[in-house]
Structure formats: structure tokens, C-alpha cells
Amino acid sequence: MLGAIVGDVIGSYYEWHNVKSEEFPLFHRFSRFTDDTVLTLAVADAILNRVNTNSMLDSRKNRKLYATKMKQYARRYPDAGYGGRFEEWMKGDSFRPYRSYGNGSAMRVSPIGLAFDSMEEVLEEAKRSAEVTHNHKKGIKGAQAVASAVFLARTGKTKDYIRTFITSNFGYNLDRTLASIRPNYMFDSSCEGSVPEAIIAFLESSDFMDALRKAISLGGDSDTIACIAGAIAHAYYKDIPIDIALAVKLKLDISLWETLNQFMARYPVI
Q1: Which DSSP state fits 30?
Q2: Terminus of the chain with fewer CB atoms < 10 Å: N or C?
Q3: What is the CA radius of gyration of the chain?
């Protein structure tokens, strides 16, 4: 999950200042955490406080918990850069989803791939976390694809296995190369138009930081693409350079820091 937050913070500047190169400064004075970080930690908090039974009633409670935590965190950080429909939802009293197929469901889902111990659980929880807002089938698919990629990376599967699993189960075309995507790639906040690209950035990478550089080099929705690629890369490579991790942690306030530390202590990436 820290990998997702690192990707978000480093990518935040480049969302508005796209680059098409892997050579760029990692941090700017305007680098910051965005809605990707806030909602990832909201999902993490929900997992830390979930009811661990399989009854239908508790399943509904856990679904409601995702929505409750997202509203709480988003209202605490109202200027993190939410999409218009999510902002309307988080300010309102209703918990009714709004059928989005945007990449918001995918950017926040990485804690699920770290916390659960079977693919069946990961897919079910990813669906549950997505559909509180993104109940369109493409929004759910994007969340499930990212959560399953994180789970497979965390549990030692090869990149070829991850590529085949994601392609077979979700239909994303992962046979493209970054070199072919990059020249004409533009901002696309849908799951269909950003989740496969983020996964390809991970698949072509040689280490954690290389995954982030490759993700950001595509341009487009840079913070979210780097957030997704960073989540998978952290689960796969395990290590994040300590100076990078510290620089990013210093961007968080105490509340976000505490949630991050609690989650990492319970679900370490090892």
C-alpha cells in the first residue's frame, strides 16, 4: 500500500505537467498526496475495522463500512482533488452508488490485495469496495484486476503468470508495449483506459522506482497510473528506497500516517 501512496505523491505534479520521458525530477514543491492516497487509506481503515464473519448481515456491514470510511476521509480532506461525481456523493447523505466506470475504484483498492489470503476473498472484497460508488461493471472489473494483481505479486507469482491471469480473467490487452502506447496516450480517467496501462508499466519494470518512472512517462492521469503501478510493484519487489519512502511519509499528516502504520504493521509486505 505504501507503494500506491508513493506513486500518487510523485505522480501528483505530473498529472498537470505530463512528461513523455522516464527522466524527470521525482519531487517538486507542489508534490502532494491526492484523493488516491486519501481513499486508499480509507479502504485500509475499513479493513482494519471490518467484521470478520461470513454472515450475510456482516457482509452488508462491511460493505457499508467501505462507504462510511470513504465519506469520513474525503470530508476530512476536501481539497484532495476528487472527481465531480464522487465529490457530490461524499458531501451528500445518501450512500447510493452512481454507476461510475472511472479509475477511482482501482486507485484505492490495493489494501485488499495485501490483506486477504485467497483470490476468492480478494475478488469479492474488491467488488464490495468498488460498488459503493463504482457499481458499473467496468468500474468493478478495474478494482478486481488491480487487487488481484497486487495479491498475485505479493504471493510470489511471476510477471508472466500475472499477465496471463489478468488477460484471461478481465480481458485487458497487456501485450502492448509502453513504447507503442506512450506517443499517443492522453488523459483517460476510465478503468478501461488507465488500468491496463498501469499494469503494463509494472510488467516492463526492473524495480520499484523504474515502475513509477515508466508509469508517469505515459502522461495522462499520472498520479493514478503511478499509484496503481506502484501498488503492484511494491507487492512484487517488496522494497522501496528508504529515502523515497521517508520523503513521501513526510507529506502525510499524523492521521494518515497512523492509518498507514497500523495497516503496514498488520499486513506487512514481505
Answers
A1: T
A2: C
A3: 17
Please list the alpha-helical segments (H only) found in 77-194: 84-91, 104-107, 110-115, 119-131, 137-154, 159-170, 178-181
- Eight-state DSSP code of residue 129: H
270 residues of the chain, pLDDT tens digit each: 999 999 999 999 999 999 999 999 999 999 999 999 999 999 999 999 987 756 555 677 888 999 999 999 999 999 999 999 999 999 999 999 999 999 999 999 999 999 999 999 999 999 999 999 999 999 999 999 999 999 999 999 999 999 999 999 999 999 999 999 999 999 999 999 999 999 999 999 999 999 999 999 999 999 999 999 999 999 999 999 999 999 999 999 999 999 999 999 999 998
